[in-house]
Amino acid sequence: MRILLVASAFNSLTQRVHTELREHGHRVGVELALGDDLLRARVSHFQPDLILAPMLTSAIPEDIWTRYPVLIVHPGPKGDRGPSSLDWAIREGATEWGVTVLQAVAEMDAGPIWASEPFPVAVCGKSELYRNEVADAALRAVLLAVERFADSGFMPEPLDYSRPDVRGQLRPYHAQEYRRIDWSADDTATVLRRLRAADSQPGVLDELFGRQYFLHGGHNEDRLRGFPGSVIATRDGAICRATVDGAVWLPQLRPRRTPDGPATFKRPAVDELGPELLAGVPEVPVTPFEAATRDTWSELRYREHGEVGYLEFAFAGGAMSTDQCRRLLAAYRQAAQRPVAVLVLGPPRDFFSNGIHLNVIEAADDPAEESWHNINAMNDLVEAILTTTDKLVISALAGNAAAGGVMLALAADEVWCRESVVLNPHYRLMGLHGSEYWTYTLPRRVGTEMADRLTRETLPVGARRAAALGLADRVVPGSAEEFRAWVRGQAEALAAAPELADRLVAKKQRRAADEAAKPLSAYRDYELAQMRQNFYGENEPYHRLRRNFVHKVRPQVTPTHLLA
Ligand code: COA
């Protein structure tokens, strides 16, 4: 079938639908919803059998949905309607929710139902839920709807609130008035629900030190206590605020834009507030080892089970600043000293990594200089992984990775992926050559020609295709929790396998042979020479592309690489 995806952005879910439908043999085009006339022109040119909207925040014009079948993915169960479904689900503590694929009609979200899939609501922020449980359920629903559409005998179910399985309702936009936190009255559970319902967008509007900020994140703190609403601690760029019965961590803040002030964007909370406002607030660190046994916020956790060490890292949006890379490197070095045979790297769920931290770079006094520090810190981390020869290192991807984040994963001996994962192994969309030793690791895995193609085409790669290409070694279906349990079983089996010693000897020999053929420093020098040009050269697109990314500037037209 010819399927045209119409989306507000080529976001994670749209990318996933794109990769899956292509793998199912469909001809898939993408059109960003950037204006009715552009959409009309594209539809008339593409002549789709079906239009599918995986993530659309605007309406499709009537002359399109009356002439073509248009299916909309709505992140709510049957009967749920409105623009803030997930916000309401999280705010109200729903434990099960759904994704429904419905046909576009004049009334928003009221069309006949083609498929509806339930999912369990994990305790996490809205965007994380969206990229994980919602995306998995949406995929199931989309594939079912497309299959039913292909079967001309299927009749979609009209929306009928008298049916027992239609339990949703029409809900209003979840404005800031619903999100407000009363620090003198709301308990921690309520505060966390409000924060999570607003994370990562739009955040909860609140006041701190007499200024207005959108609060982002929302994680429990098990020990620290203080006067409700006050900032009682900092840790690795986050702030901790006391509630009436506990405390919560807020990793990021975004100042409210003043009427004639510049556009604002999210930054680590401590950077945003600065040392003057935070004078007297103690930095309360936690080691990765300790964090693994506590209910507190930490980007790093380290645990061991038998002969396997697990270094978990979880960075908001998968972005890794210079400081975050350095902290992860320190934790990695410690883990590498432990008497374990296998080391597993990766967050328990959500993004693995999306490379250098573009927001922190954008906010720096000298973005070129900060880019340079950041890429060098990333490279130091990757180098430490590449040169670990006394252990098998596994990258376990429960969630997506992009750009330098993919190359970080490739530094390990094996890459294991949850089937839902989408990889973007390229840098060009950010105007970068890229580093992280990719010129060593990527061709080594997929060959020079395919490495060139992947980095040039700039298209997402689904996990199954990644395995077929050699980008990933093992791929399994299932939820993030199932993946975690599977990883543990596989890692323990590796550590106990009699051939482990031989594998480690072979690994050491291969590294030595590779080093003799071309030292790692030569790859690094070459890549960094290109990156230096990207950061400091004249007429380089990187600074403009980064600014647009950070400020979420939408393109004028659908980028050419998305036109099928
Ligand atoms: N630096 C800073 N923030 C980043 C980031 C990065 N490298 N990568 C992702 N983010 C943020 C996004 O701004 C977004 O923030 P929000 O939740 O406040 O809106 C969040 O992480 C999730 O990203 P989003 O783009 O909404 O997710 P997606 O799944 O739709 O797309 C990517 C994922 C990776 C394709 C896209 O985020 C991307 O292109 N990132 C940049 C990758 C890159 O070029 N890195 C630098 C070179 S190494």
Q: Could you characterize the architecture of this molecule?
A:
This protein folds into three domains: 2-150, Rossmann fold (3-Layer(aba) Sandwich), CATH 3.40.50; 181-273, Formyl transferase, C-terminal domain (Methionyl-tRNA Fmet Formyltransferase, Chain A, domain 2, Roll), CATH 3.10.25.10; 299-549, 2-enoyl-CoA Hydratase, Chain A, domain 1 (Alpha-Beta Complex). Helix content is 39%, strand content 19%. With 564 residues, the chain is α/β, with parallel strands linked by helices. Helix 4 runs antiparallel to helix 7, helix 10 (322-337) packs parallel to helix 12 (367-386) and helix 12 (367-386) runs antiparallel to helix 19. The mean pLDDT is 97. The strands form five sheets. A six-stranded mixed β-sheet has the order 2-1-3-4-5-6, with helices on both faces. The protein has a six-stranded mixed β-sheet with strand order 15-16-17-18-20-23, with helices on both faces. The radius of gyration is 24 Å and the shape is globular. The structure holds coenzyme A (COA).
